[in-house]
């Protein structure tokens, strides 16, 4: 009989608006902790490979992101810039969105960004343009 209240408590916890952003934060900290001691610039590291690059041989808009984060964590800003300029410039915006999502969740509110059509087109255009430029230059 005691299982029903526990199951309800777990279900209530999983439905709380802060659960998803906290889980993303914990996963990010775990990934960053692993990455800190794993140099992606060296061959043979146990890190995920880009499926787009594996299939096409081309760099996707996010290729170099793992190396960029590694370099940032080690204070190598010039190397991070060389790894992926556009992703480095976009990172503060992504972190701000994650912070807002977490803050609203802690306040007990669900939050989802609602980018307008122009914003969506701009983001997609920058991603496509960056993919073309970095594969041609």
What does this structure look like?
The chain is mainly alpha-helical. It contains 7 helices and no strands. Helix 2 (about 20-35) crosses helix 6 (about 85-105) and helix 4 runs antiparallel to helix 5. The longest helix is centred in the last third of the chain and has 22 residues, at about 85-105. The radius of gyration is 19 Å and the shape is globular. It starts with a helix and ends with a helix. The model has no long low-confidence stretch (mean pLDDT about 90).
What does this entry show, briefly?
By secondary structure, this protein is mainly alpha-helical. The chain is built from seven helices and no strands. Helix 2 (19-36) crosses helix 6 (85-106) and helix 4 (65-73) packs antiparallel against helix 5 (77-83).
The profile of the biggest β sheet is: none
Strand-residue fraction? Answer: under 5%
Assembly state of the chains shown: single chain
**Shape label:** globular
Structural class: mainly alpha
Low-confidence stretches: none
Radius of gyration: 19 Å
How many individual β-strands? Answer: 0
Q: Secondary-structure element order, as H and E?
A: HHHHHHH
Secondary structure: helix percent: 55-70%
Distance between the termini: 66 Å
**What is the residue-averaged pLDDT?**
92
Count of DSSP-assigned helices = 7
